[in-house]
Amino acid sequence: MPLNWRTYPGWVTGEPLAGPVAAAGARTVAAGTARLSAAWSEGSPVPEAADQRCEGIADFAARRALVAQAVMFTSGFTAEFIAKHQGEDLHELGEPQQAIYDGANTYLRVGGNWTGFSLGDPGGPRGVNDPLWPLDALYGARDAVEIGAESVRGVSATHYRVTIDLARADAALPTGVTVPAGPYRRLSQIPAEVWPPREAYSEADG
């Protein structure tokens, strides 16, 4: 899977491009704690305000993040939904919702109480909606291509595009990684004949 990533001054040079990017996960975790900002961008490679998903604090040793996040995934999607439903009392949707991502589990602040969703083994792999999931995915970075220099929030950065090898990331992490269908480690052990057949079609002219 492709992923865009940016590095900042102080990164190691003189090694294959994928090296510094693949090391980003371990380097970040070694910091202990950090402020966290996550966004979802399909257009501009540098997220805009409407792409903002959440902000908060991450405790890497505890594999936990406390964030205030947009109710409907991003600030832009939330604003569009409210605008389409004018006249309805949706003011609460405009306020960020508190969330705790604790290992494989997620807790949301609902009606003054914390509610857990799809709870499982906290020592399992992070879910794909966890804002720290991309950090785990970076352990599988390879085939890095330097796109060019950019400025991100006023900081000089180098923009890379890399391919994520999920098998490599899964092997590098004791907890493994998760994909939308479930834990990669478990899915990779399912015999091929168990999966339903897939069909692909192409136009007659190729």
- CA distance, first residue to last residue: 25 Å
Beta-sheet strand percentage?
25-35%
Helix content: 10-25%
Please, how many domains?
A: 1
- Widest beta sheet: strand line-up: 2-3-4-5-6-7
Number of helical elements: 6
Q: Specify the overall morphology.
A: globular
Radius of gyration, taken over Cα atoms and rounded to an integer in Å: 19 Å
Mean pLDDT: 77
What is the subunit organization of this protein? Answer: single chain
**Class derived from helix and strand content:** alpha+beta
- Enter the CATH topology name: outer membrane lipoprotein receptor (LolB), chain A
Number of separate strands: 11
Low-confidence stretches: 1-16, 192-206
Major sheet size, sense and barrel closure = 6 strands, antiparallel
Helix-strand sequence: EHHEEEHEEEHEEHEEH
Q: CATH class, please?
A: Mainly Beta
What can you see in these coordinates?
The protein is α+β, with helices and mostly antiparallel strands. The protein has a single domain (2-194), classed as outer membrane lipoprotein receptor (LolB), chain A (Clam). Helices cover 18% and strands 34% of the residues. The chain has six helices and eleven strands. It has helices spanning 18-22, 24-29, 75-84, 133-137, 166-172, 184-187, and strands at residues 2-7, 33-39, 52-59, 64-69, 97-102, 105-110, 113-117, 141-152, 155-164, 178-179, 182-183. Strands 2-3-4-5-6-7 form a six-stranded antiparallel beta sheet, with no helix packed on it. A three-stranded antiparallel beta sheet has the order 1-9-8. Strands 10-11 form a two-stranded antiparallel sheet. β3 and β4 form a beta hairpin. The chain is globular. The relative contact order is 0.17. Mean pLDDT is 77; it is low at 1-16 and 192-206.
